Amino acid sequence: MAGKSFFIDTTRCTACRGCQMACKNWNQNGASATKNTGSHQNPPDLDGNTFKLVRFSELEKDGKPAWYFFADQCRHCLEPPCKDAIEGYVDDGVVLDEATGAIYYTPKAKEAPFDEVRSSCPYDIPRQAADGSYVKCTMCIDRVSNGLLPACVKICPTGAMNFGDRDAMLALAAERVEKLKATHPQAQLLDAEQVRVIFLVVDEPTRYHKNAIAGLKPGFMHKLAQRFTRRAAAS
Amino acid sequence: MTNHWNDLANSDCVLMMGSNPAENHPISFRWVMKAKDNGATLIHVDPRYTRTSTKADIYVPLRSGTDIAFLGGMIKYILDNNKVFKEYAVNYTNIAFIVGDKYDFKDGLFSGFDKDKRAYDPSFWAYVKDEKGIPRRDPTLQDPRCVFQLLKKHYARYDLDTVSSVTGTSKEDLVKVYEAYSATGVPDKAGTMMYAMGWTQHTVGVQNIRAGSMIQLLLGNIGIAGGGVNALRGESNVQGSTDAGLLYHIYPGYLPVPSASVTTLAEYHKKFTPATNDPQSANWWQNRPKYMVSFLKSMFGDAATPENEFGYGWLPKPEDGKSYSWLDLFDAMYKKEFKGFFAWGMNPACSGGNSNKTRQALANLDWMVNVNVFDNETASFWKGPGMDPKKIKTEVFFLPCAASMEKEGSISNSGRWAQWRYQAQKPVGQSKPDGDIVLELFNEIRALYKKPGGALPDPILKLKWDYMTKHAFDPHLVAKAINGYFTRDVTIGDKTFKKGDPVPAFAMLKEDGSTSSGNWLYCQSYNQDGNNMARRDKSDPSGLMLYPKWSWAWPVNRRIIYNRASVDPTGKPWNPKKVVIEFAGEVKDGKYTTQKWTGDVPDGPWYPLKNPDGSVREDGKLPFIMKPDGYASVYGPGLKDGPFPEHYEPIECPVEKNVFGSQLTNPVAAIYATDRDIIKSCDPRFPFICSTYRVTEHWQTGVLTRWLPWLIEAEPQMFVEMSEELAKLRNLSNGEKVVVESPRGTLEAVAIVTKRIKPFTIQGNEVHEVGIPWHFGWVWPAEGGDSANLLTPSVGDPNTRIPESKAFMVNVRKKG
Predict the structure, then answer these.
(1) ipTM here
(2) DSSP states of B43-84 as a string?
């Protein structure tokens, strides 16, 4: 299949936060005043200034401490529900770039109600910036269109973050899963067929992050149906 | 480092101990992961399970301050299980040396201890020498007085049960680590050690590193690809700073600073130039006079002549027996012995042990100059917590300086690579690069010494001081002066050099004043080929990532030092699959007839020790060329606290007895005696061990990073990590603001209650450990918290006097 993909191997991630910082750097995003709530994860969630967030999950596995790192971001779905949600209200609010598959919002996106856009996302990604615009990872489309790697991939020292043609990334992901299965029988890719940002984990996905894989939200289909009805009625 | 960052990828077994590389040297983990990709075993030994531990194949906990017990146990394991790489150890280390009869060790003390002086007489530890003055050796290792047998005897007490009861590490875990690591004691396997402040910041710091080095020597891991003893330095250019002699006891290039009683240069040469009668020992420090004189020429230029001993008399000298280390300076400052102080690019109010003592000491000054990028706890000490500005007479000047990307110059990394950097942007506002500040300051000082004049003007007025281009500080001029040049026309061999020509490399430095060099180690860095530090060629002919043309490494661009130990005595690599150097001279009738090495810059071009036919070559050289006898020290008689590392408890510790002997703590540790130097061991008011450490997101005292929004967002506040068990004991919840207090100070911190720390069982008792980062200070942000060093003690290692910030005692309790 055409376009680009990310492959994120969580077994190589050291939670250095380079990706979190590089994303803010490239997008010239700000920062919020945070508190330490008893975790190293900060800010606590994605927000209007944070499109890439390293999530820390501390657990026990086989009686020993386990610490999973999940560098969360927009999945750039092959069939993005947020695109449907926005297009239910306005044209030209969201772009699906043909060459890469990147999904990014335009200023018109905010003509769609935010909570509908946000709740349409099975990974809970879309957020609002201070000026009201809807924001999330853009796949660094300006960098990628100019032959550069996304900022988060460029900065990653350990090879947790990978980016390239989708076929190559899927092949790399498959190779890594195979290799890891020997010592980690639960090694798996998350929603690989549905998204362009493919995470590799070695445990139950929700032990990393509650939205690590897509789960249908209650009323999701109903809301989707309503949108099309509304749009059809308006035109 | 003996090796360098990229070389980590060549390793088969990476021991990360006294360090947390994934968090504090994140880029290094690129290479550690590559090693893992190639099948290496990663081992992490740390009181806490950290971000590094998540990538380790083997993680084991140990109580802070017990590294020697742990490593001593490994030494015993290596000896008991015959894991020594015998051919390497016998031929290249001093395990076969015979030690004199005066050496002894009994009940925690080595022979030669003077209780009143609190010092050892190292003459008690001397080797037996033959009639030529060369240390006697027994290569069969049977002599009961040989180092090998004494080593065995010393570590016989470090059995698994004892080590486990001291470190809190289970016997199972100990064996797991020992087995995995000692598997590298064979020719085709390399083990590397990555260490940092977790080893150095103890009153036994140097001995911690010695223990690691001894293991590396027994296993044959020094001088090879993927091996080495590798210090992860805590600042991007601290390697450069120690190379440049910023510590009080060394001149640039690690030349010793003479004390006041060494009144002449001739005496200096005599005292500090080692000699050997062994033709196979290169004894490279025999060249020290050349480097010292070249250094003096760089300081005083034409004013330095043979007649005035090249200006030797103009160098300030410390009093005999007196130490001027950080701890000593602030102790003296606290005792009102200082009028003025330049706090240059540092934040002592937060960075040194026992910060309350330091902050109070600052209040005793008449004046202070703070050179820094942002406001900080040192510059603003006078309005800090507990300070009354009305009562403080210190006049503080703040000189804003440029940040690293606003300056041009070199930065020397842990791997000894001096990488030149260009100026990315001009300094903002009134801030200036440090070089410009020093220049302007000294120009003023010199003018004042000229008129109205001052006491002892010669050193000031005769200092060579021509580092300006177009009225501005020029780092290129300094770099060239550091490299060095000929002070007159000189012919060496068949080459003629003109006055002012750069010296190609340090082999051409002379004792007669014909050469000038600010730092012999950096001679070649900026020579006739140009600024070698600025090279960026990525070619790698060896395939071992030596990158010989990427920047420049000291010495003489040698990337792995002691690499003559990577080959056998005939010059053939121990591991033909990872060849660092190889002797490639022609052979005739079983003997080498020409001299040629391939690969990395060999650690001296000389012939190997033996010919292919096994006959000894008197013109061959032993690999450890910086030791007078040419062999690496498994037995190390040159340190202040003994020739073998011995477990002593931290000065402030949770146990009443040291199970290894009657001596509880290091008998010669640096200790101080003001009213603020309070130590409380085994005090029920301070029942928990505390350690200090860093996070990826902040750096040092946070003096730069706390002002950067993305970083403070990620790590906004002082925290204390503790076990779930301790939280239960003290009824504390995750995220709750709590109080951490030591005999020296108090802090507030957010509790991080975690499974990643577990209580230890030490000598049958449950002992808790907590940890705090030292990145915060009261100046900014408002809710950030204050410095961890308010709690740490001002006690230090006897050799380096580095503060023991890694193990002391605290209490943790609910606020108010």
Answers:
(1) 0.95
(2) EEE-SS--TTGGG-SEEE---TT-HHHHHHHHHHHHHHTT--
